[in-house]
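EI: anyone free to look at a 1010-residue chain?
SC: sure, send it
EI:
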Amino acid sequence: MKKIILYFFFLLITSVVYGQSTYDDNKVHSNENLVYAFINAKIHVDYQIVLNNGTLLIKNGKVIKTGEEVVIPKGAVVLDLKGKYIYPSFIDLYSTYGMPKLKKGESSRDNTVFSNPNGKALGWNMAVKPEVDAIDLFELNSDSAEKYLENGFGVVLSGQRDGVVRGTNVLVDLNDKSANKSVIIGKASTEVSLYKGKSSQTYPSSKMGSIALLRQTYLDAKWYNQKGLNYTDLSLEVFNKNREYPKFAEARGYLDLLRLDRIGDEFGDQYILIGAGDEFNRIGEIKKTNASIVVPINFEDAFEVKDPMIADMVDLGDLKAWELAPYNLSMLDEADIEFAITTNGHKKMSKFWIHLRQAVKSGLSEQSALKALTYTPAKLVNANETIGALRTGMQANFFISSTSIFDKENQIIENWVDGNRFQFSDITIPDLRGIYDFKSDSKSNLRLVVSGSIGKVKAAVKPNKDSTSYTLNVTLRGNDIKINYDADDEQGLIKLVGTVDLEKRQWSGVGTKEDGSTFNWSATYKKALEEEDLSAEALAKEKQKYKPGAVWFPNKSYGFKEILKTETVLIKNVTVWTCEEQGNLEKTSVKIKDGKIVAIGKDLKEDKGIKIIDGTGKHLTPGMIDEHSHISASGGFNEWAESNSAEVRIGDVLDPDEIAIYYQLAGGTTAAQILHGSANCIGGQSGLIKLRWGSNAEELKIKDADGFIKFALGENVKKSSGGYAQNQFPRTRSGVEQVDKDAFTQGKEYLAAWEKYNALSSKEKLNAIEPRRNLELEAIGEILEKKRFITCHSYVQSEINMLMHLADSFGFTLNTFTHILEGYKVADKMQAHGAGASTFSDWWAYKTEVMDAIPYNAKIMHKAGVVVALNSDNDNEGSNLNLLASKVYKYGGLTQVEAFNMVTINPAKLLHLDHRMGSIKVGKDADLVLWDGNPLSIYSTVLKTYIDGKCYYSKDENGKKLNEIKKERARIIEKMIGEEEGGGSTKKAPVKKKRQTVHECMDIEMHHLE
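SC: here you go
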């Protein structure tokens, strides 16, 4: 039977007397001294205390009293809010309300600027602007305010959110009287970020550059605090002053959130972290930060995935992120992590409420939600004695709603800010929405569904299976109601008249048929709209809809459901490639325990409970090591804006979730040096990692490893291909030499200045000025002190000779020449100097300076006594290091052991890690790979990869993972399709993310700058 739905308006004109006065404000004289009494409301005094039949008194924008037995002063304006709710107005801590629109500076991509171009005594970098105070820029904006007000917000923390180091934010309420009266706290907080913003200067051009700039600013500010400096920097002066305020840090993802917290910890600042809503990925790590978080709830719409081809192209990580985002707040709450909720990210504010209620349905308690919108944000800016609740003496910021804010049909009727009233509908109109039993003498068992908004409702008649549908025309004036409908049978046109009991929401009266006969009718309120009956099947679907999948580590394809544990394993009767002097051992056993190799031999004891692996016919090798890799980092591998960027650190931007880690584990690689790119003469500091898939960024790092740094020579540095920093020095190979020479000269002077200062007595230091810590020169100084070691991108014989000569003149040894395709020409000089080589097996002919490359390069350098490794320089090759060795074996005439050493013990030696890894020896880390055949064969595959005794890859488990991935994808896609079919919002699927980026030396990434 068809369903007939009719939409209509209720025009409600009621005559209700409210105590001693009408509701309207007195228009004749000032109402500033009036007392307003809001009675009979359900009042949320704060997120914990609720008065079921309370009274709220306010005067002059302040709360006089709240309670259930409050004496109302004579002459007060009494407002009867029976059936309605009062809440403290919400507070948003991430807003640009009242701020001027930012304009991007004129592009200077080809012009590196090292001074602030505005001519003032400010810091050199325009992305560092602590001197910008939002209160100086703030202007009222009624249009913007209205969007906040009609959604229950009364206060926002506003600022010009631009730059790495930002100025102060202003806490303002949303009254429209004047900017002067809006300001609650002029300098309420300060802020940092990892995003350069609108600065026209080229530096920083990467995320690690932003971190380095932030770190250097802290150090400069500390140095600037000294007495006796004949130097003025208003930016540093203000930066120091601003540290007294609450400190916010903007992150655009949970990895950045953790990065920022580490920076704060480094300098003794506890940041309030502005999250991105994806904290569910690493709740345990975020808990350890002890930080409060400002969290957006702009959940993504379901993807349009009905097309199986499209569905198959969506990354599982994106699917899981869509499903888990609504549970983010409940997971934070369960972990006892303090958070506030922001509207940031919502292009349409109306979606904020949809997402808030979705978060509550997904496990967030209503009390916690209210706390995160009132008390917590007030507390975080030290304003919880003024706003965020409705206690005596606090600001009169509250809104009146038709029902609970978590009710889907709730409507905000008014919002009072600092005692100023903002109306969004007529408070005198009763709320008649709900589900009614509709009966008459001739018809029964009909449901009348009244929905819509107060004052603009819509209604639908939903008959049962054996009932006839009717079209109703309804008019309500005051308590009188008229309904007309066509019975569509012998009865003809029916007219109903009657009255409505507004308190009980009971409708009744008399109907007249077309023939003049009459009958009685009634409509009885039964329940709220959200309680409409659902079938058992629908209830099951609804319950399943709010049941999330598990968080994986990482939360994407091939992630682990649990954190791995170290195993005790005995691998028996296997061919062991020791990569030590004894070479390969046949039919030998290896025992690992507590992450170490504990025994190697023929007849090892099988301890009770030990895991036994039969290695018959298999080969066991050390985990392979990639000396030159560009995986597992985000925000750019090149800080190209300076010729010398020694201050930046790959370790600051490690990305533990990059899928290349798992792929390389499947190829037998267990460790890598993650290098800065080759866009400048002196690049950034390396990150030495083990490929601990599922771990966090800090756990990837190899502890107590020596420091390394990337240098570069040749075409890349002098920008032969153009494309970036066109006016940046150097432009020639001789210019590259001069940049390096100048850096080492400055480095010597820097070390000398510190040596002189450190030689002073404690008394002498009291009257001396401490040298400025310069992170760039500090890294150069570490090279000179043999505490940091160079890996140099190189190709051409002349430049290789130049850099060795330069190193000799400054008294240090170059650690490694990487790529070095003309190494065979200078192998004897490299051996004499003490430099190692990390080369390609067969890359050449891709640019001019590699034209002299030959397939015997690695062999010739090896035979000359140079320690030679083979490197990948990209994600794909890093998964096949064994094949690089097999090429050298086949075409270079080396032994199998010599060739395989070039991807195991030799790179370990170059990275100063051979005491821990790179070979199979008792006492070394249990970084092992079990192969089903000779590792130099193209037909061999990895069966298991261990790091520190934990099995990070298993061929058998990989097959199970593929099935898990398939099931997980199907489950979430089914939910997405259900969301779409249920009328939910959808968006095009992000299929482009399916393509895996392959990083190499020259990659330039710009997306993170703003």
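EI: Residues 955-981 form the longest helix (27 residues).
SC: 👍
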